[in-house]
Amino acid sequence: MTDRVGFYKVSPRTIRVWRISNAISYFFYFGIPAVYYAILGADGFHGWFLAFLIFAILIVWSVAVFWFPYQNWRNWRYTITQQEIELKYGIFFKTHTLIPLSRVQHVNTRQGPILRWQELSTVTISTAATTHQIEGLDSTLADRLRRKISTYARLAEEDV
User: Fold this and answer.
1) What span, in angstroms and rounded, lies between the C-alpha atoms of 9 and 80?
2) Residues 14-30, buried b or exposed e (16+ Cβ, 10 A)?
3) How far apart, in whole angstroms, are the C-alpha atoms of residue 8 and residue 5?
4) 102-to-12, 57, 122, 129, 147 alpha-carbon distances in Å
């Protein structure tokens, strides 16, 4: 799916993957009230504080599961040219990354169980300094992009 000139969005199925992932990750925060209850009980002030704590965690969990994934998907963009890979993402803090193809050392595709269930993959681009990811691509598209980036990186290396 294309966006503005030359920019592409990740698959809309990525929203479901991020929701499931966030639901599992943030679910462990519900252990905080359980530990609080086990240590201090729920008498008087502790009962009110425990109720507030559960409510606050429920709000944070709901936002992380239902709002963040959609907003993240809306802002995720990427483009690949023969000179560079450009990534744009972020909700509150926008990140705009340019990766020169002459710096790319290797490119991988990977799938976890949730991505595999949705027939999606992640393309991982490694440079000497760091690793970048384009998550939530259709598996066939991810394989094509991996080959394309690899080919462009070899061409850029020959030009240097």
Assistant:
1) 12
2) bbbbbbbbbeeebeeee
3) 9
4) 31, 45, 21, 13, 15
Dihedral over alpha carbons 154, 156, 159, 160 (to 10 degrees)? -100
pLDDT digits (tens, 9 = 90+) for 91-128: 999 999 999 999 999 999 999 999 999 999 999 999 99
* Rounded-to-integer distance, Cα 20 and Cα 13, Å: 11
Q: At what angle do helices 13-27 and 45-62 cross, to 10 degrees?
A: 160
3-class SS at 85? strand
Is pLDDT of 55 > 80? yes
Res. 5 pLDDT band, cuts 50 70 90: low
Give the β-pairing of 77-80 and 104-110.
unpaired
**pTM score:** 0.84
- Per-residue b or e along 129-157, where b marks 16 or more CB atoms closer than 10 Å to that residue's CB: eeebebbbbbbebbeebbeebeebbeebe
